[in-house]
Amino acid sequence: MKNFKLMATMGAGMESLVARELKEMGYATETENGRVFFDGTVEDIYRTNLWLRVADRIKIVVQEFDAKTFDQLFEKTKAFPWEDLLPYDANFPVNGRSKHSILHSVPTVQAITKKAIVKRLSEAYHAHSYLPETGQRYVLETAIDKNHVMITLDTTGDSLFKRGYRTEKGGAPLKETMAAALVKLAHWFTDNPFVDPTAGSGTIAIEAALIGRNIAPGLNREFDITDWDWFDKNIGQTLKAQARSMINFDEPLDITGYDIDENMIEIAQANAEAAGVGEDVTFKQLAAADWSTDKINGVLVANPPYGERLGDEDAARQLYSQMGYIYNKMPTWSKYILTSDEEFETAFGKKATKKRKLYNGALKVDLYQYWGKKIRN
Question: CA angle, corner 290, sides to 285 and 296, nearest 5?
Answer without folding.
Answer: 100
